[in-house]
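Justification of computing resources. Each target in the renewal requires a structure prediction run like the one illustrated here; the chain below, 323 residues long, is used simply to show the kind of job we budget for.
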Amino acid sequence: MTNTVARVENLQNHRQQFPALANKAYFNFGGQGTLARPALDAIYQGYEYLQQHGPFSTKVNGWVTQQVQQTREAIATELGTSPETIALTENVTAGCNIPLWGIDWERGDRILMTDCEHPGVIATVGEISRRFQVKVAICPILETLNSGNPADVIEAHLTPKTRLVVLSHLLWNSGQVLPLPEIIARCRNTHTDKPLQILVDAAQSAGSLPLNLSQLGADFYAFTGHKWLCGPAGVGGVYVRPEALETLNPTAIGWRGVVQDESGSPIGWKRGCERFEVATSAYPLYLGLRAAIATHGSWGTARERYEQICRNSEFLWQRLSQL
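Resulting structure tokens:
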């Protein structure tokens, strides 16, 4: 058996774990991925456990703490970082809102955003601009899809007043992968009146690109589990670079993010990015995301999966071209 035949057979066997792929060709992973059977089973088992032991009991409280930490660890391993740099959220937009609202904005500060960002982020930046008199500049990188360097365009739009650059790693409207390490390096080398930070919308890159956030250099990297990671809707997160942690103030605040004294009164923030987590979540979904990540890992490494995505994309493009 040749390597190509073996690879195809392995891929076909892997696809059989996804019920939604049994009777269709599914091309909507950019909107929401399909769940593998192990992820579905893990979610069911999680809800069964909650109801068998009482969803609000001492035993379940300990179980919840364990599930939250294990999920944070699984995500951190997948994204190449440490668990304390990850805050669990519901989706990418919630993850982006943590740094967008957590920065201590002042009148005259400037946000640089590309022309390829998602409406949820655009709307949030617009409201920050209105509320804090922050100026917003848009740099045109959509036209660099087939020619030009996005890093050149972004660098040309930086000013001494630029405080935050908002961009996506993999553009949701064109599929272009931005040269993020080069862009970040250029931002770091630009003189600004205040430290310049980078917020990355990772809706399309988490689960599709091999990532090592500890080396990437972005200050904030917001992602979701329900797209290319093929996890359940309702679980995502945001990475915060350790050097950037103390530059943010929690704004959506709840019991999960605070330290309490013996009387139950809040006396400070939890360590690391846990301070940005708010309150009760659908915890069985955390089990589903971990099972989804493990399912991907059982097929191959992040690099191997990315190479298979590239092969599939090339095959699809060639066949469409023939038509």
